[in-house]
Write a structure and sequence with these properties.
about 350 residues; alpha/beta; 9-stranded parallel beta sheet; 9 strands; DUS_fam
Length: about 350
């Protein structure tokens, strides 16, 4: 049977594509459902399925596919280096209602790339050649790749892009930093623009797309088919709707602190199920608030007090003081300069 490499048709025809970046321990079924309430991206991606000799399909991640009610296509992302097992898991996933298989070649977490998976693969173009060749010949449908512009530098970049073309990859999501840069330093949009010109498939530009305005600038400067957004979607779940509005010439919706408090409450409900201990629930909410707080107030006192909270009562008391004292005040569309999320929250987050 001939392999189909066509992308599922986006649900916003005529507009640039948007995608929610896969973020481990963040973009689960519950978080996707929350995002969908504020305006879904065109595409979702699962957290990565870890692939090795004894791996199966993670049931919790699989729920993002089998219980997807967002109305948007979802890609199943896989990470690993064992070619027979990557093929095996990709074939198993192909029986589920997915938009395609996405290979992670960009995760910058040291504990990941040291195993020669994720971003670690970018050191070995010939291994990438073998993996893509076997996946392309073994599965029907869409095969996409998420990667960075290199491991330590871009010396091998064009060689890898040539393999993207050789195996008819359907979509390339490209973060404009190296693996060793992590989430620090400038995003190299010129190199993304170079990839747009070199590869035959659509490219999603990824990295520091923080608002509808910055998305428009990135699209203009790179020529990319769309943008993939990670951490900024945690901070501002309205961002995909705002991008569509801005690119259509409409007025961008105004988000108030009161609406942000409602969003936080929705996130709270995603962490309160089962028998999860309070400390774990607080830590999960702090992870979300670490990004949301970048646009709450410019001095950093909200972030500081939130991080010092020990209980849910303390944590949500801080939220109420800063967000409900003046609920009609506008939430900043961009993060305030100088405020940063804790590095520990970035260890496996894509953006």
């Amino acid at each position: 049977m001939p392999k189909s490499t066509c992308l599922p048709e986006p649900l916003s025809p005529g507009l640039e594509l948007t995608a929610l970046a896969p973020m481990q321990d963040v973009t689960d079924l519950q978080f996707m459902n929350v995002i969908a309430e504020y305006g879904s991206p065109d595409y979702f991606f699962t957290e990565y399925f870890r692939v090795h000799a004894s791996s199966g399909l993670d049931k919790n991640i699989l729920r993002s596919i089998t219980e997807n009610t967002t109305g948007r296509p979802i890609f199943a992302q896989i990470i690993g280096e064992s070619i027979p097992d990557l093929v095996r898991i990709a074939q198993e996933l192909s029986f589920y209602p997915i938009a395609g298989i996405d290979l992670n070649m960009g995760c910058p977490a040291p504990r990941i790339y040291r195993k020669n998976v994720g971003g670690g693969l970018l050191r070995d173009p010939e291994k990438i050649n073998r993996i893509l060749g076997e996946l392309r010949s073994s599965i029907d449908g869409v095969l996409s790749v998420k990667m960075r512009i290199g491991f330590e530098n871009t010396d091998l970049f064009d060689r890898i892009l040539d393999y993207i073309n050789l195996y008819d990859i359907s979509l390339l999501s490209l973060h404009g930093r190296t693996v060793k840069q992590g989430y620090h330093g400038a995003v190299d949009y010129d190199t993304i623009a170079h990839a747009v010109q070199r590869v035959n498939c659509p490219v999603l530009a990824n990295g520091n797309v923080t608002s509808a305005y910055s998305a428009a600038k990135v699209l203009s400067s790179t020529g990319a088919a769309g943008v993939m957004i990670g951490r900024s979607a945690i901070r501002n779940p309205w961002i995909f709707q705002q991008i569509r509005q801005h690119l259509s010439g409409e007025r961008i919706c105004v988000v108030t602190l009161g609406l942000v408090r409602d969003y936080i409450e929705k996130l709270r409900r995603t962490t309160s199920g089962g028998t999860v201990p309070e400390r774990a629930r607080v830590n999960q909410m702090k992870m979300y608030l670490n990004f949301i707080g970048l646009s709450v107030e410019r001095t950093g006192t909200f972030l500081s007090q939130m991080r010092q909270s020990k209980t849910e009562t303390e944590l949500f008391g801080v939220c109420d003081r800063y967000l409900l004292a003046d609920p009609d005040r506008e939430f900043s569309i961009e993060p305030y300069p100088g405020l940063v999320a804790r590095p520990s929250c970035e260890k496996e987050k894509s953006d």
